[in-house]
From TrEMBL:
InterPro entries: PCI_dom, PSMD13, WH_DNA-bd_sf. This is PCI domain-containing protein. It comes from the Eukaryota. GO terms for biological process: ubiquitin-dependent protein catabolic process.
């Protein structure tokens, strides 16, 4: 893919149609390069779906799952633990106020 790897959040299962402008914004690519990006992703079987060049929209029906290394999984677990700890601290701070 051009400019390295790009990640685009595909909304919900119900809303998988994305405008080229949204894809451009999410990937930080010029809108003129979005069609090529989508065609390349389709040809590499990274995504499945269709593209409407006239309306400048892409409908995504499937996305290749991302595979994480053990190191990435470990880092993710640490970040999630840190997040849980922060949430617990917030809960401890606001719990007395909620009880009243």
């Amino acid at each position: 893919m051009p400019h390295g790897s790009h990640r685009v959040r595909v909304q919900t299962k119900r809303n998988r149609t994305m405008s080229f402008s949204t894809i451009a914004e999410e990937t930080r690519l010029p809108i003129a390069e979005v069609e090529h990006l989508v065609m390349k992703a389709l040809s590499l079987n990274l995504i499945r779906g269709s593209m409407d060049q006239v309306d400048q929209k892409a409908q995504i029906t499937w996305v290749q799952p991302r595979v994480l290394s053990r190191t990435q999984i470990g880092d993710l677990a640490k970040r999630l633990d840190g997040w849980v700890n922060k949430l617990n601290k917030v809960e401890q701070r606001i719990a007395p106020e909620v009880v009243q």
